[in-house]
Automatic annotation (TrEMBL):
Enzymatic class: transferase
Keyword Thylakoid: no
Presence of keyword Calcium: no
Family from the record: Belongs to the class I-like SAM-binding methyltransferase superfamily. RNA M5U methyltransferase family.
Gene Ontology MF: a single term: methyltransferase activity
Keywords in alphabetical order: Methyltransferase, S-adenosyl-L-methionine, Transferase
EC number(s) stated in the UniProt entry for this protein: 2.1.1.190
Name recorded for this polypeptide: 23S rRNA (Uracil(1939)-C(5))-methyltransferase RlmD
Domain TRAM: 1-59
Catalytic residue positions: 399
Amino acid sequence: MAEATTQQVRIERMAYGPEAVGRLESGKTVFVAGAVPGDLVEVAVDRKAERYCNGHVSKVLEASPDRVVPECPYAAVCGGCPWAQISYDAQARHKRDGVVSALARIGRMGEERAEALVAPLVSPSAPWGYRNKVELAVVESGGRLSLGMHAADGSGVVAVKACKLLDKGHQGVVKSVAGALSYMANSHHLDLERVGVRVSTRTREVEVALWDRPGGFPRAAVAKVLADACKPTSVTRVMQKGPAKARKIAGQERLAGRGSWGEVVGAERMRVSAPSFFQVNTKGAEKLVELVMEGLDPQEDEEAMDLYCGAGTFTLPLARRAGFVSAVESYGPAVRDLRRNLDEARLDNVDPIGGDAGLEFPDTDADVIVVDPPRAGLAEQVVSQLSDQPARAIAYVSCDPATLARDLARFEEKGTFEPASVTPVDLFPQTFHVETVTILKRRAGR
Ligand SMILES: C[S@@+](CC[C@H](N)C(=O)[O-])C[C@H]1O[C@@H](n2cnc3c(N)ncnc32)[C@H](O)[C@@H]1O
């Protein structure tokens, strides 16, 4: 049956994505942008696929009790806060439900076991003003450069006066950096692909990272205009190669200041270079470290392993407590950051290994292990290698409930480790993303 272009839909739940889910008159699933579970809305259908449709709210007919007016005036047009129309309590409920559902279905645990395993969601930060990083999109049209936030409908950039997700003292930096660079582009050729800004209330450091391709670049003029706009402590240029998404870099140049960004996480001071991963929510990162340390309780006479370790968020606190740490990271800039952070912390009981976690899996017997892979989760080979370890516990930090659930099912098949707890942590309020810390314990007799 052909779907009408506008239909009344009762919204049932949130997807693990920006949209809410309901059913069209035909029974077909529709993913609706801007909706809240419990709403009765008029949906404008934008896209029809064989088994589902996508649409957006054209009118709210009956508002859900969980619907709120977003705190940010750009929420409807900017892609940064797709859940901003949902009250924070309801966001927290839907995130936990999403984790339970992934474990029950993809992890093949069943609803009852998943419900018992998943702890209440932990919210380490305020629901707004929690980010230490923002990434500005850049669009060139008719010889003019526009910088701003990615538009929710993918149609370019949204110019904003401030980003309410960014740390309170720095929300206006988006406008000053965007304004300064678009002004400069009137007189200089700037072939920017994106601009990253990292800020810290704790260290007062602000870094602007300009992502482009190798070639000529008005270094001094850019450094000067940014110094006037936002007094950064570091300005760097990151030259990419290959597809922009792959984030492979041909080189990095320090244009002004320190050439990296500093943050304090718990008791540790860390420096991170622009291309390296660092959690965007510092209080959230601290909560992850706390949950991992509580779950593993590393001892002085024990050996630890930290796979996908980045610049060392877990490596440093592990090295303070365990006798020795083998830390593996595949991305060159992050390995260099890790080495520098270990040097500055005067920690010499870590073996920093550059390479793929599976190929360079440490040739050692660990007592406790941390894994914190990207969204793709663990390679099947890594689950096997971990299952062959004599460790008493593994902390699995995940940013994707679906791949976590898949990997827990693989651990179950191997039979050595079983999950003792899964704690969802909200590092990304106003979005669908949810982080989890799973503690796996060695099964009795294994
Ligand atoms: C989610 S981040 C976690 C980083 C770090 N644990 C932290 O909290 O800051 C995942 C890290 O894994 C690294 N990575 C991605 N694929 C990898 C692989 N196959 N082997 C080792 N590291 C990898 C990425 O470069 C990134 O630094």
